[in-house]
Design brief:
The protein has 125 residues and is mainly beta. Helices cover 9% and strands 54% of the residues.
Length: 125
């Protein structure tokens, strides 16, 4: 299970551990964003700090209907105790955890400041 808290701005925050190129693990708080269908987005300065590997360019249609082009990198994250290799979209925003990374999990949020955020793996028997 992955747990976090609702911050003062009512954002669901979870800690996310990312392996740097040298193997050291860096932990960063990230916002759970159910409107983002990607895996993870990180700001350029954090991508540089982590020395992530560039993979390709990506395109997305934003909520306002505009289209943007961005760089996509590769990272290894510690997700619910397992190492997972994922694409990371570069974005000038706070780190965001998207729906692709949360696939197979149940998201429960207590919507009040300090409320619990829980991601639990769903058993598919």
């Amino acid at each position: 299970m992955i747990t976090g808290l609702i911050n003062v701005e009512f954002e669901p925050i979870i800690p996310l551990s990312i392996r740097r190129a040298d193997g050291k693990v860096f932990t960063q708080d990230a916002i759970v964003d159910t409107g983002f269908n990607g895996w993870l987005s990180l700001p350029p300065d954090l991508i540089t700090q982590l020395n992530l590997t560039w993979k390709r360019r990506g395109r997305a249609v934003l909520g306002d209907g505009s289209e943007c082009v961005f760089d996509v990198y590769e990272a290894v994250v510690v997700w619910d105790g397992a190492l997972v290799k994922i694409p990371v979209d570069e974005a000038d925003s706070e780190p965001l955890v998207g729906m692709s990374l949360m696939e197979g999990y149940q998201l429960t949020i207590q919507v009040f400041e300090g409320g619990q955020v829980e991601l639990c793996k769903v058993s598919t028997v």
